[in-house]
Recover the amino acids of this structure.
């Protein structure tokens, strides 16, 4: 017999970037609403993070890996409430964090915006789809979201419409960034220091980054913005009831309206939570899993999964670089090739990002053959002498790429979930073009040798498109306000909504979008 | 015999080097992984596939060939053992020192990234001068 709770006006499922931003904003804009925000995982204690331990390198590959499957497979428990994902038939392996703060706990905090053209892909390039609103409709919310996260960067980037001045100075480029900048400069290509949601000076009651390194295993001093430090405390101050360790099994839908959710709480109790509006923000896999498990009748649900195809090139330099120091998502990027150029043989473009390097163990393990005398020689040559250029391509929506339920029940009481994703020829051409440009830049910067990695399977951070916005219920799941066509009082508020995805990291856009959708609901509630 | 075989396998996987060009020498794996007992459960399925006498009497190049064959024929067993050995090896203070890395966790000291970027950031004047590159 389920415990029946007092009805809420709004229950938010998922406390990652989308859910946290939505809950915090709604509570501020509509203070009379009774709101709760649930997550299947809990809070974590920064004192327990791998960065404080000597075995931090191996923890980053096991119990604190970025992949939930690797964490589960290691047999050890981190405080992410993971569920297995069958990714056997997916070119990219999904990465995420399941706890309060969501994947902002272990993200790199690379914080680019989409470009204006990313919202009008169909109109401008004849492929993909248009968003139901423009960059400029979302721009005020990008600004609000920047303020909440506290962005370190440099204003004036000509790859974008003018942005407000960045509140914090850019992350130091380091020797690696300086060498890369010189390479781009020699070629006459665009480059710019990254926007990072990381404190470069103490701000908002949080410390400055001390460049310790393992951002993707949680930030040990809180310099990296994650929503457990930003939106969730704001939400709590404004009366949102935050509920960790709640695994939602079903959104109950009757006659085309959600009436509430059924979940199991941390004490193992079955709970029935009536609510006038249910907001779902569990990322492109978790959201699709819950909506499918709830029987939502929507043919596009779970389909059009997009990741951002990823590959990279490493360059080796005679001079010593400082690659393994500092936040992995920095130092700089180039959008020289971001916009469509018909002469390239594909539409849309690529994001080139010079990232910082991995620690010693990871660099050793990624060698083509990480053992034998040759491995020692190669690692001697590469460690502290290498630079990686990440290439992200624009994924396009394809219905066969999808999240689907399996026919067995997982330990969390939910149907199992699988991911089917085949990378398109278009994406392959985009990546190959980007890899060529990355090699060109590395050579211009002085690399004497390059290693091309044509696909980076463990780069599946960006889980997008599985509950896309649109007008047509046959080809989209929600309208432009995130409301499900099949049940309008279910609102999706995460990256699942993206009709197209550009070629940049989506965290900034997910936050901005959630703020916009919260305002839409607040206006209706007024 | 079992310990001798495991030691020989470890030192074929990670034989160390002589630290030429003025660098600190890398020790062989058996000097790092001196307590073999915790490795046994992962190592035994690999050792079972080797002929002990043949492996022990072989030279370094032949031993490496034998492990390469095993890597192909039993990739999961091989990789499980290798991952454990790599983790022990590359987190050891002597190995970290040989690569010029410090033997302490990232926190609380963190690291210092040089902040002298002024000259590099002046290069952005040319990027700005080329004007906007985004499409409306």
């Amino acid at each position: 017999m389920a415990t029946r709770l007092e009805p809420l006006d709004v229950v938010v499922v998922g406390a990652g970037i989308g859910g946290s931003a939505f809950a915090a904003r709604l509570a501020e804009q509509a203070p009379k609403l009774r709101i709760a925000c649930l997550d299947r995982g809990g809070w974590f204690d920064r004192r327990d993070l791998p960065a404080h331990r000597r075995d931090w390198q191996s923890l980053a590959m096991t119990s604190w890996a970025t992949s939930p499957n690797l964490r589960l497979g290691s047999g050890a428990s981190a405080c992410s409430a993971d569920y297995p994902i069958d990714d056997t038939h997916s070119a990219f392996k999904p990465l995420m964090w399941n706890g309060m703060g969501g994947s902002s706990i272990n993200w790199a905090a690379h914080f680019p915006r989409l470009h204006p053209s990313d919202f009008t892909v169909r109109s401008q390039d004849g492929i993909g789809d248009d968003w139901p609103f423009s960059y400029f409709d979302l721009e005020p919310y990008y600004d609000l979201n920047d303020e909440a996260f506290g962005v370190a960067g440099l204003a004036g980037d000509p790859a974008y419409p003018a942005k407000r001045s960045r509140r914090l100075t850019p992350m130091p480029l380091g020797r690696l960034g300086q060498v890369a900048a010189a390479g781009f400069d020699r070629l006459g290509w665009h480059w710019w220091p990254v926007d990072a949601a990381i404190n470069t000076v103490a701000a908002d009651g949080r410390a400055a980054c001390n460049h310790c390194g393992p951002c993707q295993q949680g930030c040990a001093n809180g310099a990296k913005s994650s929503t457990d430090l930003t939106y969730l405390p704001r939400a709590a101050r404004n009366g949102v009831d935050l509920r960790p360790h709640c695994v939602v099994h079903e959104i109950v839908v009757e006659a085309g309206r959600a009436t509430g959710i059924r979940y199991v709480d941390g004490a193992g109790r079955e709970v029935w939570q009536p609510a006038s509006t249910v907001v779902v923000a569990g990322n492109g896999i978790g959201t699709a899993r819950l909506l499918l498990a709830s029987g939502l009748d929507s043919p596009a649900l779970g389909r059009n999964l997009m990741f951002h195809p990823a590959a990279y090139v490493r360059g080796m330099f005679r001079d010593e670089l400082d690659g393994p120091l500092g936040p992995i998502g920095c130092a700089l990027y180039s959008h020289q090739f971001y916009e469509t150029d018909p002469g390239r043989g594909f539409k849309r473009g690529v994001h080139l990002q010079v990232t910082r390097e991995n620690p010693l163990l990871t660099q050793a393990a990624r060698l083509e053959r990480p053992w034998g005398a040759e491995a020692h020689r190669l690692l001697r040559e590469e460690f502290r002498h290498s630079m990686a250029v990440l290439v992200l391509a624009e994924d396009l929506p394809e219905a066969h790429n999808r999240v689907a339920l399996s026919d067995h029940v997982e330990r969390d009481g939910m149907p199992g979930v699988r991911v089917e994703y085949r990378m398109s020829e278009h994406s392959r051409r985009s990546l190959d073009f980007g890899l060529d440009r990355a090699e060109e830049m590395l050579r211009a910067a002085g690399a004497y040798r390059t290693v091309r990695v044509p696909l980076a399977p463990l780069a599946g951070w960006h889980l997008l498109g599985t509950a896309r916005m649109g007008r047509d219920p046959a080809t989209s799941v929600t309208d432009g306000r995130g409301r499900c066509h099949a049940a309008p009082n279910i609102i999706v508020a995460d990256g699942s909504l993206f009709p197209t995805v550009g070629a940049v990291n989506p965290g900034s856009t997910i936050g901005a979008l959630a703020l916009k959708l919260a305002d839409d609901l607040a206006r209706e509630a007024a | 015999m079992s310990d001798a075989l495991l030691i020989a396998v470890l030192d074929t996987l990670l034989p160390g080097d002589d630290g030429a060009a003025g660098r600190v020498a890398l020790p062989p794996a058996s000097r790092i992984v001196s307590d073999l007992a915790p490795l046994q459960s992962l190592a035994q399925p690999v050792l079972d596939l080797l002929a002990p006498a043949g492996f022990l009497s072989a030279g370094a190049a032949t031993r490496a060939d034998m492990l390469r064959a095993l890597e192909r024929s039993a990739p999961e067993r091989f990789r499980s053992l290798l991952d454990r050995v790599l983790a022990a090896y590359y987190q050891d203070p002597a190995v970290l020192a040989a690569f010029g890395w410090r033997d302490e966790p990232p926190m609380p000291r963190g690291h210092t990234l040089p902040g002298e970027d002024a000259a590099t950031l002046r290069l952005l004047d040319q990027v700005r001068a080329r004007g906007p590159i985004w499409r409306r």
